[in-house]
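pls ignore typos typing on phone
NAP + seq
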Amino acid sequence: MNPMQGQICLVTGANAGIGKQTARELAQRGATVVLVARNRERGEAARAEIAAGEHSVELLLADFSSPASIRAMTEAFKARHDRLDVLVNNAGVYLMKREETADGLEMTFAVNHLGYFMTTLLLWDRLLAARSARVIVLASDAHRQAKLNFDDLQNRHKYAGFRAYAQSKLANVLFAYELDRRRGDAPITINAVHPGFVASNFGRNNGGVAGLFMTRVVPLFAKTVVEGAATSVYLASSPEVAGISGQYFTNGRAVKSAPQSYDRAAAERLWTISEELTGLRLPNLALPDERRENGGHTDL
Ligand SMILES: NC(=O)c1ccc[n+]([C@@H]2O[C@H](COP(=O)([O-])OP(=O)(O)OC[C@H]3O[C@@H](n4cnc5c(N)ncnc54)[C@H](OP(=O)(O)O)[C@@H]3O)[C@@H](O)[C@H]2O)c1
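k done
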């Protein structure tokens, strides 16, 4: 049985870890899956591996630190597909040393938060066209340790890798909740996920003690990528969560996120800053005709 036959899913950071496993499982359920990777070789290897199961898998390239690259990727998607049923915002980094994008933004904030913000807003028309779409935002319980410092969102002062990462993950939860409030009657659900502590490639890029810890120690007690992808796959595919939006999920169920993630003033402020930094606004698009003819009712 292929419960997602005919559906189109886009997964970012899909060449490795949780993203690759999520893409694989959505393809196994019959969906056409568009993988997004920043490196052609790694992306092509993942595409070939997943497609070997005779699944429909496509590859698009994007570096989420580059707005131009994100725009080119979403344009390439739109040229090929007139709707998007599931968007999994999953690509993420953890950087022990501060790095900047070509535009002078702190890398973790840019990739982990603005990357999700841009991808979702640029594909909003295609999500709307699906008439019943789902957006999944890979956050982390690390957000519980974070406080958004609006005086130093770019982490210029006393950079610490975990603080920058935790802030970006709090931004993910604030974004998911704020998008849910702003979507109006758009038939698109938005939920955030904590995948658990997962033995993926995460953090291995750092080298040194941190990289060694992620490579050698974490796999001893962390979840496997199959376990780590389970909540993303559940949110993308299960009828049980149709219509559920604006929630934080872990281990396949909605739980309370940290108190600071329910700060609506902070969410609005972050949204405005994100609009200014990206030049994007949530499109105020008409709903698909069929939906309006149906008295506004949709099965989410
Ligand atoms: N692993 C955990 O314990 C854990 C816990 C909580 C939350 N999460 C979240 O889960 C998500 C997936 O992480 P993972 O554990 O699967 O890590 P991973 O194995 O390191 O995979 C991360 C993916 O993001 C991609 N990526 C990173 N920077 C990028 C950029 N600038 N442009 C495009 N793609 C980029 C990576 O591409 P490359 O292969 O080219 O680097 C890779 O495909 C992340 O959002 C992370 O914050 C993970």
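The mean pLDDT is 93. Residues 124 and 283 are 7 Å apart (CA to CA). more later
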